[in-house]
Amino acid sequence: MFLLNQHPDYRTPLEPVDAKTLGVPAAEEVERYLTYRDNHAPTPLHTLPALAAELGVDSVHIKDEGFRLGLGSFKALGGSYAVIRLVLEEARCQLGRAIDVAELHAPEVRAVTAGMTVACATDGNHGRSVAQGAQLVGASAAIFVHSGVSDERVAAIARFGAQMIRIEGTYDDSVAEAARVAAEKGWTIVSDTSWPGYERIPGLVMQGYTAMVREALRQLPEAPTHVFVQAGVGGVAAAVAGHLALALGDQRPTFVVVDPARAACVFETARAGRPVRIDHGEPTVMAMLECYEPSLVAWRVLSRVADAFMTVDEKDAVAVMNRLARPTGNDPAIVAGESGGAGLAGLMRAAADPEIRTALHLNGASRVFVINTEGATDPERYAELVGMRPEIVATTPRRADA
């Protein structure tokens, strides 16, 4: 399914609060925070010339977030950044003075954070980031996971010392339960989705994601003409689209939001012209994108700066995983998890459809940017779908300039 943005707010300026959250100064502040992370390094940007030739575009560049902060996902940028910001704000309130990130490990700050508990719901990646952030600052973490989250992903979160709480139902059910329990216990919810009355903290999470856009703009030889980014609740798509619109202005690329067909809450919201909750159906292989209600903040941004919305099927996601693992020509081998290549799957589907190509002005001069949002966050599942262990794919020789 494909549709162009027909919302009345399309191409209007972002709300001031969103422009402040996602603008260049905010992104630069996120990058400053990252300099205080021991394992911080920019993630690689790869060129896929063989795939670009097959798709009939000038270039395809893919940002590989499988290397982000040791967590294997772009989510490492959001939850932990929000936790750090919230800890510093609480320390400022209790200590009565401004507290900079450089003081994060000062004894008086650690004494404040030792009494804090942060909580969230997760499909896997966001919870890992929140748990890592809590461990980094010396706070406690309680992570709510629904019945569809694999034991491997639960174990990957628990290794950061988080209390793991299993609930029945879907991701959206876990969001509701996390909010309920946190309210009872006085915990701080650090969610990557927003709802009425709860917007600032999801905004901080989205702000964290802008760091990878700043990196990409420095790494790309030219600004992209087209960007395809996957959506769960919409946070990463909104962060990327919003920052590109603010940083590049009239030169911003055509931005396409890609949803799993089985969990297309952002697509259906775009079709309805307002946030909608969709029915839970058969699970999608794109587990990190299996969300049934969009983030209100994310939709507020995407309604203004997304140009089109589309869906991809299960087979599209698995095909991209395999294509990246077994590249042709001089393209490098890339480990992409089940949700990681959904944006690229959208590009491949769009490039194969003459009507969509025309609607997006996708042609031989197009410079396309996509994000591999996760590596093999569940290695066993990856091996099942690709037929190779992720460590084998990761050690495939790469060209020095790839």
From TrEMBL:
Keyword presence, Methyltransferase: no
InterPro entries: DiNH2opropionate_NH3_lyase, TrpB-like_PALP, TrpB-like_PALP_sf
Keyword entries, A-Z: Lyase, Pyridoxal phosphate
GO molecular function, one term: pyridoxal phosphate binding
Gene3D superfamilies: 3.40.50.1100
A UniProt-annotated Pfam family: PALP
Cofactor(s) it depends on: pyridoxal 5'-phosphate
Tree of life domain: Bacteria
Transmembrane segments: none
Residue span, Tryptophan synthase beta chain-like PALP domain: 38-357
Segment forming the signal sequence: none
PANTHER family per record: DIAMINOPROPIONATE AMMONIA-LYASE (PTHR42937:SF1), PTHR42937
Protein name per UniProt: Diaminopropionate ammonia-lyase family
Highest classification ranks of the organism: Bacteria, Pseudomonadati, Pseudomonadota, Alphaproteobacteria, Hyphomicrobiales
